[in-house]
Amino acid sequence: MSERNNTKLVVDEDYRTRQQAKQSLFEYIEVFYNRQRRH
Predict the structure, then answer these.
(1) What is the pLDDT of residue 21?
(2) What is the distance between the alpha carbons of residues 29 and 1, in angstroms, rounded to a whole number?
(3) What angle separates helix 3-11 from helix 18-37, to the nearest 10 degrees?
(4) Structurally, how many domains does the chain consist of?
C-alpha cells in the first residue's frame, strides 16, 4: 500500500469527537515513523 493510500485511510474515517480524530492521527504517525526507523 502506498503512502498516499495510507493517508487516505486516516482521512476517510468518520470520528464522533475531535479527540478520536487526534488519537487516530497520532497512532498513524507512530506506526509510520516507527516503521521507517527500523530500516
Answers:
(1) 87
(2) 16
(3) 160
(4) 1
Cell matching residue 18: 475531535
Q: Which of 21, 23, 28 is nearest to 5 (CA)?
A: 28
Domain range for 32 is 3-37
- Between CA 3 and CA 39 the distance in angstroms is 16
Other Cβ atoms closer than 10 A to 38: 5
What single letter denotes the amino acid at residue 10? V
pLDDT in tens, the chain (39 residues): 445 555 555 666 788 999 998 998 898 888 878 766 555
